[in-house]
C-alpha cells in the first residue's frame, strides 16, 4: 500500500515534467539518498512529458509516484499516485470535483491501494497553484491549525501537505499545524534552498519536499537530503 510506503519518507524530490533536467542532474537526484521521487507540477502538464520523465526514471531503483493534477495526464506504471485535495479553497473542483470526474471515467479500473490522498493547505498566495485553485492562502496560525484539526480528527486523512511552493514558509505556521497532528502525516514543501531552512522544516514535517532547487542548483538540492535526514523530528502531539 502506498500509505505504508510513504510512512517511511523523510525527504522527497518533486520533479516537474514541464522543466528540463539533464541526465547528469537526474542521476545526482536519484542517487542522492532521497526516499522517493514525486513527479508533478502545476502548468503545462502533459501525458507525453510525464511518460518521458517516467522512462528516464525507470533505470533507478527509487520509488516514483505521480502527483495527479490533470485527469488527461495519468500515466500508468508508477509505484503509486498522490491525489491532492485542496482544503483552503471554495472551488469544489479542486476539493473533490475533478476526483469525481476521474471516478466516472475510470471507475473500477482505479488501483485504490496505490493511491494516497493529500489534504493540501496552500499558504503562499503568490504561487501558481494558489492562483489556479483560488486558495484562501492568507491564513493566520489559528485558521491554519483548524485545517489540521479537520484533517486529523474529522476527516482522518493520511497526509496534510503544507504547500508554500516557491517561497520558504513561516515556521510558526508549520509548527501550529504540526501541533494538531498525531496520526496524520505532515508534508512540507516550499522554497528550501539552505541548510538552515531544511533543518527548520525537518523539525516539524514528517516529510520534506524539495522541488525548485533541483533546477536552480542541483548540488545544493542533493545536500538537502542529509540536512533533512540528520535533523530530529520533534515529538508529535
Ligand atoms: C512544490 O512543495 C513543492 O509543490 C516544493 O516546493 O519547488 O518551492 O521547493 P519548491
From TrEMBL:
Top-level taxon of origin: Bacteria
GO molecular function terms attached to this record: heptaprenylglyceryl phosphate synthase activity; magnesium ion binding
Binding site for sn-glycerol 1-phosphate: 14, 161-166, 191, 211-212
CDD domains from the UniProt entry: PcrB_like
Catalytic activities: sn-glycerol 1-phosphate + all-trans-heptaprenyl diphosphate = 3-heptaprenyl-sn-glycero-1-phosphate + diphosphate
PANTHER family recorded: HEPTAPRENYLGLYCERYL PHOSPHATE SYNTHASE (PTHR40029:SF2), PTHR40029
Assembly notes: Homodimer.
Protein family: Belongs to the GGGP/HepGP synthase family. Group I subfamily.
Protein name: Heptaprenylglyceryl phosphate synthase
Gene: pcrB
Amino acid at each position: 500500500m502506498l500509505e505504508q510506503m510513504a510512512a517511511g519518507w523523510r525527504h522527497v524530490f518533486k520533479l516537474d515534467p514541464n522543466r528540463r533536467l539533464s541526465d547528469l542532474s537526474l542521476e545526482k537526484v536519484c542517487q542522492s539518498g532521497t526516499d522517493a521521487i514525486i513527479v508533478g507540477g502545476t502548468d503545462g502538464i502533459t501525458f507525453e512529458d510525464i511518460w518521458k520523465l517516467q522512462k528516464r526514471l525507470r533505470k533507478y531503483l527509487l520509488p516514483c509516484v505521480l502527483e495527479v493534477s490533470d485527469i488527461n495526464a495519468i500515466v500508468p506504471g508508477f509505484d503509486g499516485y498522490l491525489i491532492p485535495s485542496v482544503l483552503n479553497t471554495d472551488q469544489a473542483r479542486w476539493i473533490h470535483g475533478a476526483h469525481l470526474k476521474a471516478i466516472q471515467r475510470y471507475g473500477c479500473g482505479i488501483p485504490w491501494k496505490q493511491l494516497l490522498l493529500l489534504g493540501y493547505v496552500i499558504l503562499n498566495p503568490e504561487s501558481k497553484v494558489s492562483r489556479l485553485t483560488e486558495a484562501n492562502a492568507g491564513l493566520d496560525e489559528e485558521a491554519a491549525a483548524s485545517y489540521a484539526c479537520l484533517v486529523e480528527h474529522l476527516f482522518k486523512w493520511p497526509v496534510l501537505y503544507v504547500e508554500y511552493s516557491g517561497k520558504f514558509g513561516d515556521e510558526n505556521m508549520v509548527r501550529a499545524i504540526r501541533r494538531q497532528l498525531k496520526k496524520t502525516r505532515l508534508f512540507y514543501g516550499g522554497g528550501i534552498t539552505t541548510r538552515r531552512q531544511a533543518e527548520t522544516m525537518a523539525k516539524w514535517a514528517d516529510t520534506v519536499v524539495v522541488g525548485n532547487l533541483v533546477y536552480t542548483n542541483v548540488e545544493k538540492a542533493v545536500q538537502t537530503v542529509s540536512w533533512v535526514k540528520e535533523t530530529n523530528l520533534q515529538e508529535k502531539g
